Amino acid sequence: ILLLIRNPKDVATSFYHFTNGMSPLPSYETWDDFFVAFMTKKMPWGCYFEYLSKWNIYADDENVMTITYEELKENPVLGVKNIAAFFGISLTEKELQSVVERSSFQSMKKNSQKTHGAFGNVLFRKGGVSDWKNLFSEDHNEKMDKAFEEHVGGTKLGKKLKYELYCKA
């Protein structure tokens, strides 16, 4: 199992734009309204911190590989190499480069109309890291950091995310 996790602040930011662009989902007039719903577990698919907590049980399982979105963005070649090795797939250099190129956010966004139809623009918005800084106030940031620490800060997955967020930033 490949478990891809992401900075909760970017998860919230991405989900805010996603829900407002997807008519069947609840939309929010303001970021503040969304943030309250996100932090009080009123999301259609539940609480991201609870999701991480549940997966943390399997973090040491040899059949589970955890990688962060941030790791893949920082070094996609190494990420693909590690994923391929985990699944026992050997890739030539040409195949590796092809996978990296075709799985890049830019490539997937470019092909999103073919692969995902009308939802392509909603699913593939920016694909960046740290877009949360464009929405979060200092208060939002403090509340998210506190919730992160309370729910997953001391866990293996929490430590992995914290390292990606704070040690590499």
The named CATH superfamily: P-loop containing nucleotide triphosphate hydrolases
> What is the number of E strands?
2
What oligomeric state best describes the polypeptide chains here?
Answer: single chain
The CATH topology is given as Rossmann fold
Spatially, the strands of the biggest sheet line up as 1-2
Distance between the termini: 28 Å
> Radius of gyration, rounded?
17 Å
- Sheet-strand content, in percent, reads under 5%
Report the principal-axis shape: globular
Low-confidence stretches: none
Domains (count): 1
* Tally of helical segments: 11
Label the structural class: mainly alpha
Secondary-structure arrangement, i.e. CATH architecture: 3-Layer(aba) Sandwich
Just give the CATH class. Alpha Beta
Instruction: Kindly state the percentage of residues in helix.
Output: 55-70%
Largest sheet composition: 2 strands, parallel
List the helices and strands and how they pair.
Elements: E1 2-5, H1 8-21, H2 31-39, H3 48-56, E2 65-68, H4 69-74, H5 76-86, H6 93-102, H7 105-110, H8 112-116, H9 120-123, H10 138-151, H11 156-167
Parallel strand pairs: 1-2
Helix pairs in contact: 5-6
Organism: Rynchops niger (Black skimmer)
Protein name: Sulfotransferase
InterPro entries: P-loop_NTPase, Sulfotransferase_dom
